[in-house]
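Quick note —
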Amino acid sequence: MYRYEIFYDEATGEGTLIEMPADFQRAYARANTLSFTTRTDIVVQDALILQSGIYSVVSQYKNDLYRMHNTIAQNIQSLHTLLEVSEEIFFPERIEVLERVNYLETQVASEREERVESLDELVKISTEYLAKALSDFELTKKNLILQDIDALRHEITFLDSVYRVNKDATLTFDEKIFSKLYAESFTGKKKAIEKSEQLTSSFSALSHLLEPYRIESQGIRKIAREKRADMIIKEAEKWIETLPPAPPLMDIFSLIFISLKEQKMYVYEDGDLILSTPITSGRQNFETVRGTFKIYTKQRNKLMKSPFPEEEYELWVDYWMGFYGAYGIHDACNAIDCWRTRF
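Predicted structure written out below.
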């Protein structure tokens, strides 16, 4: 009886669940009702039942100890694996996970009397630690792939701008098709509910389709870089005392930025400033439209006619680039005459 009670206390103290059959329960209750003087009156059958029950306690205890130790060890190993994988990326919770792994390993290695928690509690704690670590790591991976997905959208815009201004390319880049594929693959709902692995798979599939255009665009950009080298040097001479302004958009190959406040126009190619020049924008009540636009036409020797009934004029310009309805960028001095000398 004493052996049974000692094992029972140890087993339940560790969180082991002990289940005894009904005949053991009856024999145990009968033994407890007898005094020490009459305990020898216990029938042999009851004694055998009690002895068998004690062996059962030991067996259950050992099995549950093995199970709990094994579960904790597996959770610790999973945390170690996560720590190894997270070395390659920025994982903010990595230090916290490492501290928890060290705590679990210390607890498991300690003697029963020295432990703060029972094995059963350590199983629960290690499982909770692992679940939180996996959740945090999934969030980190998802944020990283979402950054790549956003960058892919900018790359589509950039490739479209490269091919729009380079008609000698052997491939034809259809921005509408890729934008549609992007929208179908990465809707707001999919970004919210899909796991990082699913998003990574979709990203890889679409990124693979862009690879031929990446390769050709690299060659196009190299040729363009060689062509604009002299223009960059000439433009840099204007910016000896101050740094030239950076392009406001980095995902556009050929970019014109007009500052109405400064009354200046800046022209960039692949991020390099190749021209800056004064401009004159629309006057009061006829202000130049603001926004982001695409050049929709390029013409030479264009006759501009007044769209205003109260003010008639006809002006020839050497260059005209329409970007929004009747709005366009044009020269103020054509090959014959300079009809504007003040800027």
